[in-house]
Design a protein that fits this description.
6-stranded mixed beta sheet, 14% strand, P14a_insect, CRISP-related, CAP_sf, Venom allergen 5
C-alpha cells in the first residue's frame, strides 16, 4: 500500500526555566525544581497516558542500540559543524560530546504520553537545571512504519535541516527578538554545552494516520545573548581533557562542562 508521510515540527525549541530548589530523601522532588508559577512535568504525574490520548496509544521501547543510534545522530551533526563543515564554516572551540541520560529520557516519556506535540513547561533535573527540549511528530497512512532507529534519526535530521538558516552571528550569540526561519531545534542539537540527551517515543492513531511522537530532552537550552558555540581557528583547541577519538572535532567525554551556565550567573 502506498504510504504518505506527513511531518510536523513545532516552530521553536523549548527554553526551560526551571530552578533547582531541593530534593527529598535522596530522591528528586520534582515539584520543587521549577519557578513557583511553573509546574514540572513529573510533579503529581503518575506516568499514565493522558485521557485525551487515543485508546491505542502506547509507549515505544528504545533499546540500548537505539539509544546509541540517536546519540550518534546528534554527535555526527555536532562533528560536522564543529569541524567547520556546516552551512556556516565556523569551527567550534570546545563542543562537548553528547551521551545518553536515562533520567532525561524518563521525563521525555511523560511528554509523549500527552499524545500532542506540545512542550511541557519544565522538565529539568537535579543535575540539569536548564534542560531544553526538541519535539518531532510524523504520521504514516497504511500499515507502514519506521523502525525505531530510523524514526529517531529522522527526528535529528529534521532538526538539523534548520542549520541552513543559521548565520555565524546566531552561533556567536543566540538572537533576541528573532523572527526569521526556525533555528531553535538545530541550535539545541549543536549547543556546545550540551553533554546529554534522553529521548522517548509514543505511537497512536490520529486522523487516520499511524502517528509517532518523539521528545528529546537535553542537558541545557538556548540562552538569548550567549553562544550556541564559540568559534576558533582550530576545532577543539580549547578542549581541556582532549578530544573524542570517534568525533575528533568534539571534546572527550571526560571534559568538564558547565552545562548549567554557573560561570555566567544564569
Amino acid at each position: 500500500m502506498t504510504e504518505r508521510r506527513i511531518t510536523w515540527l513545532l516552530i521553536a525549541a523549548m527554553a526551560s526555566s526551571c530552578l533547582l530548589k531541593g530534593s527529598l530523601a535522596g530522591h528528586t522532588d520534582y515539584c520543587q525544581l521549577c519557578d513557583d508559577d511553573v509546574t514540572h512535568i513529573a510533579c503529581g504525574n503518575d506516568g499514565s497516558f493522558s485521557d485525551e490520548c487515543p485508546s491505542n496509544a502506547k509507549l515505544l521501547t528504545i533499546e540500548e542500540d537505539e539509544q546509541q543510534a540517536i546519540v550518534a545522530a546528534h554527535n555526527e551533526v555536532r562533528q560536522q559543524w564543529a569541524q567547520g563543515n556546516g552551512h556556516v564554516k565556523v569551527k567550534a572551540c570546545r563542543m562537548a560530546t553528547v551521551e545518553w541520560d536515562a533520567e532525561l529520557a524518563k521525563l521525555a516519556e511523560l511528554n509523549v504520553k500527552q499524545c500532542v506535540m506540545e512542550h511541557d513547561d519544565c522538565h529539568s533535573t537535579d543535575r540539569f537545571i536548564n534542560s531544553g527540549q526538541n519535539l518531532f511528530i510524523t504520521g504514516f497512512s497504511g500499515m507502514g512504519a519506521p523502525d525505531m532507529s530510523t524514526l529517531l534519526r529522522s527526528a535529528v535530521e529534521e532538526w538539523a535541516l534548520e542549520g541552513k538558516d543559521v548565520k555565524a552571528g546566531y552561533l556567536a550569540k543566540y538572537p533576541d527578538n528573532y523572527n526569521g526561519p526556525t533555528i531553535g531545534h538545530f541550535t539545541m542539537v549543536v549547543h556546545e554545552r550540551s553533554i546529554a540527551v534522553g529521548c522517548a517515543a509514543s505511537n497512536f492513531d490520529e486522523d487516520g494516520f499511524n502517528t509517532f511522537l518523539v521528545a528529546c530532552n537535553y542537558a541545557t537550552t538556548n540562552f538569548i545573548g550567549w553562544p550556541v558555540y564559540s568559534a576558533c581557528h582550530k576545532a577543539g583547541e580549547h578542549c581541556k581533557a582532549g578530544k573524542n577519538p570517534n568525533y575528533p572535532a568534539l571534546c572527550s567525554t571526560s571534559e568538564s562542562v558547565d552545562y548549567n551556565f554557573n560561570d555566567q550567573g544564569i
